[in-house]
Automatic annotation (TrEMBL), chain A:
<dbReference type="Pfam" id="PF00890">
    <property type="entry name" value="FAD_binding_2"/>
</dbReference>
<dbReference type="InterPro" id="IPR015939">
    <property type="entry name" value="Fum_Rdtase/Succ_DH_flav-like_C"/>
</dbReference>
<dbReference type="InterPro" id="IPR037099">
    <property type="entry name" value="Fum_R/Succ_DH_flav-like_C_sf"/>
</dbReference>
<dbReference type="InterPro" id="IPR030664">
    <property type="entry name" value="SdhA/FrdA/AprA"/>
</dbReference>
<protein>
    <submittedName>
        <fullName>Succinate dehydrogenase flavoprotein subunit</fullName>
    </submittedName>
</protein>
<dbReference type="InterPro" id="IPR036188">
    <property type="entry name" value="FAD/NAD-bd_sf"/>
</dbReference>
<dbReference type="Pfam" id="PF02910">
    <property type="entry name" value="Succ_DH_flav_C"/>
</dbReference>
From TrEMBL, chain B:
<feature type="transmembrane region" description="Helical">
    <location>
        <begin position="161"/>
        <end position="182"/>
    </location>
</feature>
<keyword id="KW-1133">Transmembrane helix</keyword>
<protein>
    <recommendedName>
        <fullName>Integral membrane protein</fullName>
    </recommendedName>
</protein>
<feature type="transmembrane region" description="Helical">
    <location>
        <begin position="98"/>
        <end position="121"/>
    </location>
</feature>
<feature type="transmembrane region" description="Helical">
    <location>
        <begin position="37"/>
        <end position="57"/>
    </location>
</feature>
<feature type="transmembrane region" description="Helical">
    <location>
        <begin position="249"/>
        <end position="268"/>
    </location>
</feature>
<keyword id="KW-0812">Transmembrane</keyword>
UniProtKB/TrEMBL annotation, chain C:
<dbReference type="InterPro" id="IPR001041">
    <property type="entry name" value="2Fe-2S_ferredoxin-type"/>
</dbReference>
<comment type="similarity">
    <text>Belongs to the succinate dehydrogenase/fumarate reductase iron-sulfur protein family.</text>
</comment>
<dbReference type="InterPro" id="IPR004489">
    <property type="entry name" value="Succ_DH/fum_Rdtase_Fe-S"/>
</dbReference>
<keyword id="KW-0004">4Fe-4S</keyword>
<comment type="pathway">
    <text>Carbohydrate metabolism; tricarboxylic acid cycle.</text>
</comment>
<dbReference type="InterPro" id="IPR006058">
    <property type="entry name" value="2Fe2S_fd_BS"/>
</dbReference>
<keyword id="KW-0408">Iron</keyword>
Length: 634, 278, 257
């Protein structure tokens, strides 16, 4: 029997990125004693990598903007697969969430009349992104972090203890969400520094763990993005929604190899950067899909004029939604018109002065100078697609962020599905974190306080979790190296379930995943439990394998191309697929025929019909391009 | 090749304070820098020492500081009765005849105080002379450190008053430079090589004085809202640009003031004749 | 693509002790020190402890000392070394070591808590904040900080004098005080909090002897000394060493019963 330390909290938030911290702030302000638990140091979350800005229709730069326009852009970007109620709440609440940051000390760039400045971004009709140079994510994280500290300072004044009502457990990992019957009862965790196990007992758990990018070889995501929250939810009995939709950001660095995948912000294009192939051609004009034909410039001249006069010109096609641009780059490279290192050229040097580039894109300038020895004020960057974001995620109730079917479990941010449909617009992730982070914290706190008695954590469950976590230390001879397994998984997903997908390849991926699952069961590590990265990776492998299976299985099932899911064998978007959601559920109990057996089953559900007043925001003609036949006549 | 965690018995260095404290990573070396980190503090110390030696000699010499129309910046303004007669020059008998020492000592105290408390020179001599620290990430030899929290170093906070004093001094040196547009018969409208030396020196002196961190603060740095003080904001911007070069200006003006004095010395002692331009 | 074998010496151990261990490891074109550490983990020392996250110089996790200089491992390119050179990597030497390249940086988090937070201006609703770009730029520079704590590590005030840790906030958090004091809407003064005074009296500004190592190591290129610490010192002078202010305070205090 494992002797582990137990602590009691009202709300446990897993993850300390934008969504997690916003949830924790809300829960604590609603009176819940709140614990935040995160794998890295406090303030290092992946949110700091977000560069462009926070989308919110404040209308500071163009007064024509409002929540309806933002909602429309979001639905178009997501190809109408979005959970429309989430898109609605998001568009309505984003401005308040941004303004609130200012009252906590955030310093955004300003307009001449002293308001928050807003910039253009792909898929957004108006300049909408509140930003700070190209380090908006850092500003967001730091502001939330400092707000948490401010709340702790209040508690210190009141109770003499900074951590009386809000505590951050940094460098700790959750391996299991614990349950008492149907209900959540806590989380099983280990401290990375010491390897010590502990249990946080809590009636409400908010998952805010971010994405799954580390299952792919070329990714802009950090090591933390191993799909922990997705896997924790699955294992706790909650379904994942539309996991086939993985966003490949069109512009990641392609050289040198060690930085391949690191993000080149979309602001580069928003501020005037153009894409060219090896023949010097601005190829994006050849890739404007029919549904967007009327919204984008048809000539280079018109596109150029748009930067100065957006009201009388259409925007250049470099600013199409990310999925379109990523596919276009992929096609150019495949056709042999790529750059020397297998990307295309992204050039700002011909459009902006060196001074302007350094002022508006300081960290891009810095990043290329330091990591690739390229001066972007004088030469073009080489860029190519990189795995960036997963639109799919835990299925949640739109208003409460509660997961479907597991009382007490909430999810917000990238780990939650639905909000972005099949493709996310740039800038919508930071606002998503704030809007639904707050909602998750609010409803978790309400749920916790409404519960008569806290659910209990059973010793058997704790023992099972401890045994599972210790398994890599008991591997027999011939143990598998977790690093090797991880690399093979990344290659499999990148090559077979990557940006362009084919039926045969995905079937092969599922086959390889079976093999990897069997080998992962034998993963072994050396050394001891104190800060042992090999052990940590061995535990994360379970999550990555589960999530990868979901992605591959859902991708194989959806026989169309839409947003972040492109099938070479089914190249067009099918209106009949519009109202179809694919849910992944864990097979329970685990199949008896060994560790390589499939763990996931798929389930098709129908989306909730879009509310008529929201549908009325679109032209009939446009709806006809997206909605299934029967939806149009309802 | 090392693998696993079976570390050979570690050779613990004798533990003491700082980087050798008991909780820190056990590394015996005071530093592991492989570059020539000692070059910069050594160069700084050598440069400052050279200036101190030269200026001490010249300040106490009480001779060869005036060669019409040039007065050495070390002796200007000259404020005692024992000053040399300088026609039109800034020699005012403020202290009278009781002052028997070199008149340079009366006035040098101000530029000396200004430079001694200067934020750049502080860095230079704390590193070069005090080894506190000798270079970044190189352990300093002192066992205790209180920085500028106590007497006498708390007096560094008086820098801005020396800055105020440095302004009239720079003004007088400017006046001296104007006077240098005379010939040795005090006729206006002439220039010699010395005039150029004086011109370069006074430009550097002003640039150094105005690039001072205290000046930057007083001009505009202390404001909370630049937008409400557009003129001061613009001035602050200029001073800030100069301030970024404060180190270079500190050295350049230190060298130029010494060269200026040396030039006067050479002319006054007859070792050299000032070439006239017109 | 060219490849060669490089010699590394990496500190391994924990609070009980440890030492520099030699490794020979492959290096490819365009790699950084962190890539090499990862290769060692994958091939020779799976339990080599190291912190890292973004690998793009944005999160400030992979701080260490490379050839004795505090640096981000992800931003230290191998091409800056010669092939013959032995590259030494150690944990930050100002903080307690946990294991291998990982140190206990809790000092910084406790200092962060000691700086009173932003005080919102009373009576200004969210959404009604108006600030001019020129007024926010100074604080924005300080908010570029990625909290890698290299400045805290290199600062001799605490690096060489453990006993000063309680009294001295370190460059990072003195800069935070400066950031708040320069924030155009911070209303701390209205609540009786004088940040200029507390910088010196509570956060140890006087310990700083402006030797600029913090600025030298900052991977974000923030001019910590010139733009934060010295202006803060000057602001403290305004409060504490200005004879007119001092006299005024004396008189006011006397006139109060």
């Amino acid at each position: 029997m494992a002797q582990v330390d137990r602590q009691q909290w009202d709300v446990v938030v897993v993850g300390a990125g934008g969504a997690g911290l916003r949830a924790a702030i809300e829960a604590r302000e609603r009176g819940a004693r709140t614990a935040v638990i995160c794998k890295s140091l406090f303030g290092k979350a992946h949110t700091v990598m977000a560069e462009g800005g926070i989308a919110a229709s404040m209308g500071n730069v163009n007064e024509g903007d409002n929540w309806q326009v933002h909602f429309r852009d979001t639905m178009r970007g997501g190809k109408f697969l979005n959970q429309w109620r989430m898109a609605e709440l998001h568009a309505k609440e984003a401005p308040d969430r941004v303004w609130e940051l200012e009252t906590w000390g955030a310093l955004f760039d300003r307009t001449p009349d002293g308001k928050i400045s807003q910039r253009n971004f792909g898929g957004h009709e108006y300049p909408r992104l509140a930003h700070v140079g190209d380090r908006t994510g850092l500003e967001l994280i730091r502001t939330l972090q400092q707000k948490i500290v401010a709340l702790q300072q209040q508690d210190f004044k009141e109770y003499g203890d900074y951590e009386a009502r809000l505590k951050v457990f940094q460098e700790c990992t959750v391996t299991r969400v614990l349950k008492d019957g149907e209900k959540v009862s806590g989380a099983f965790c280990y401290e990375r520094e010491t390897g010590r196990f502990f249990v946080l007992e809590a009636p409400a758990v908010v998952l805010a763990t971010g994405g799954i990018g580390k299952s792919f070889k070329t990714t802009s995501n950090s090591w933390e993005y191993t799909g922990d929250g997705h896997a924790l939810a699955l294992l706790a009995g909650a379904p994942l929604l539309n996991m086939e939709f993985v966003q490949f950001h069109p512009t990641g660095m392609v050289w040198p190899p060690s930085v391949k995948g690191i993000l080149v912000t979309e602001s580069v294009r928003g501020d005037g950067g153009v894409l060219r192939n090896s023949e010097g051609k601005r190829f994006m004009f050849d890739y404007v899909p029919d549904v967007f034909k009327e919204k984008y410039a048809q000539s280079e001249d018109e596109g150029d004029r748009w930067y100065e006069d957006p009201d009388n010109n259409r925007r250049p096609p470099e600013l199409l939604p990310r999925d379109e641009v990523a596919r276009a780059i992929n096609s150019e490279v495949k056709a042999g018109r790529g750059s020397p290192h297998g990307g295309v050229f992204l050039d700002v040097s011909t459009r902006m002065s060196a001074e302007t580039i350094k002022r508006r894109l300081p960290s891009m300038y810095h990043q290329f100078k330091e990591l690739a020895d390229v001066d972007i004020t004088a030469e073009a960057m080489e860029v190519g697609p990189t795995c960036h974001y997963v639109m799919g995620g835990i299925a949640v109730e739109s208003d409460t962020a509660a997961t479907v079917g597991v009382p007490g479990l909430f999810a917000a941010g990238e780990v939650a599905g639905g909000m972005h449909g099949s493709n996310r617009l740039g800038g919508n992730s930071l606002s998503d974190l704030l809007v639904f982070g707050r909602r998750a914290g609010l409803h978790a706190a309400q749920y916790a306080s409404a519960l008569a008695a806290p659910p209990a954590v059973s010793q058997a469950e704790v023992d099972a979790a401890a045994a599972e976590a210790l398994a890599p230390f008991h591997a027999d001879d011939g143990a598998e190296n977790p690093y090797t397994l991880h690399q093979e998984l990344q290659t499999t997903m990148n090559d077979l379930v990557g940006i362009i997908r084919r039926e045969g390849e995905m079937a092969e991926a599922l086959e390889r995943l079976r093999g990897l699952r069997a080998r992962a069961a034998r993963a072994g590590v050396e050394g001891h439990r104190q800060f042992n990265p090999g052990w940590h990776l061995a535990l994360d492998l379970r999550n990555m394998l589960l999530v990868s299976e979901c992605v591959a299985r859902a991708a194989l099932e959806r026989t169309e191309s839409r947003g972040g899911h492109t099938r070479e064998d089914c190249p067009s978007m099918e209106r009949d697929w519009r109202p179809v959601n694919l849910l992944c559920r864990l097979l329970e109990p685990a199949p008896a025929d060994g560790p390589d057996a499939d763990r996931i089953r798929l389930e098709r559900t129908r989306t909730e019909p879009i509310r008529p007043d929201l549908l009325a925001l679109f032209e009939k003609d446009e709806l006809a391009k997206y909605l299934a036949e029967e939806e149009l006549y309802e | 090749m090392a693998t696993g965690t079976d570390l050979p018995p570690s050779h613990r260095p004798p533990r003491a304070g700082g980087v050798h404290g008991p909780s820190r990573a056990a590394i015996a070396a005071r530093h592991l820098r492989t570059d020539r980190w000692w070059l910069s503090p050594a160069g700084t110390a050598a440069g400052l020492l050279a200036f101190i030696a030269y200026s001490t000699w010249r300040a106490f010499a009480n001779a060869d500081y005036y060669a019409a129309p040039y007065v050495s910046p070390f002796y200007s303004p000259c404020l005692a009765e024992n000053c040399k007669e300088m026609r039109g020059g800034p020699n005012l008998d403020v202290f009278g005849s009781w002052w028997g020492l070199s008149p340079a000592l009366l006035i040098l105290i101000f530029p000396l105080g200004f430079r001694l408390t200067c934020y750049y020179y502080r860095k230079a001599y704390y590193r070069g002379f005090w080894a506190s620290p000798p270079a970044c990430a190189v352990a300093e030899p002192h066992t205790a450190y209180t920085g500028e929290t106590r007497f006498p170093l708390v007096l560094q906070n008086l820098h801005r008053y020396f800055f105020y004093a440095a302004l009239p001094v720079a003004g007088i040196l400017t006046y001296d430079t104007v006077l240098a547009f005379r010939n040795d018969r005090y006729e206006w409208g002439h220039m010699g090589l010395g005039t150029l030396v004086f011109l370069v020196n006074i430009v550097l002196i002003w640039a150094y004085t105005l690039s001072c961190h205290s000046c930057r603060h007083i001009i505009g740095g202390r404001l909370k809202h630049f937008s409400e003080h557009p003129v001061r904001y613009r001035l602050w911007g200029w001073v800030s640009r100069l301030n970024a070069r404060h180190m270079q200006l500190a050295w350049a003006s230190l060298i130029s003031v010494a060269l200026c004095d040396l030039y006067v010395y050479l002319v006054a002692s007859g070792a050299f004749t000032d070439p006239r331009i017109f | 693509m060219t490849t060669y074998d490089a010699r590394f010496r990496i500190w391994r151990g924990d609070a009980e002790g440890g030492g520099l261990r030699d490794f020979t490891v492959e290096v490819n074109d365009g790699e950084v020190v962190l890539d090499i550490v990862h290769r060692l983990q994958a091939t020779q020392a799976s339990d080599l402890a190291v912190r890292w996250n973004c690998k793009a110089g944005k999160c400030g996790s992979c701080s260490a000392e490379v050839n004795g200089r505090p640096r981000l491992m992800c931003m230290t390119r191998m091409s800056t070394f010669s092939r013959e050179e032995t590259i030494t990597v150690t944990p930050l030497r100002a903080f307690p070591v946990i294991r291998d390249l990982v140190t206990d940086v809790s000092f910084n988090y406790s200092k962060a808590r000691e700086v009173p937070a932003f005080v919102p201006p009373p009576g200004v609703a969210a959404g009604a904040y108006r600030m001019q770009q020129v007024d926010v730029e100074r604080s924005q520079e300080f908010r570029k900080c990625i909290e890698c704590f290299l400045c805290q590590d290199t600062c001799h005030v605490v690096r060489d004098h453990e006993e000063n840790k309680s009294a001295f906030a370190g460059p990072r958090f003195l800069m935070r005080v400066a950031e708040l004091d320069m924030h155009p809407l911070d209303a701390a003064a209205g609540e009786g909090l004088d940040r200029k005074r507390t910088a010196q009296e509570q956060h140890g500004l006087g310990y700083c002897n402006i030797t600029k190592c913090c600025t030298e190591v900052c991977p974000e290129g923030i001019k910590i000394t010139d733009n934060a610490l010295i202006p803060l010192k000057e602001r403290a002078v305004d409060r504490k060493y200005d004879p007119l202010v001092w006299l005024g305070n004396k008189i006011r205090r006397r006139s109060q019963p």
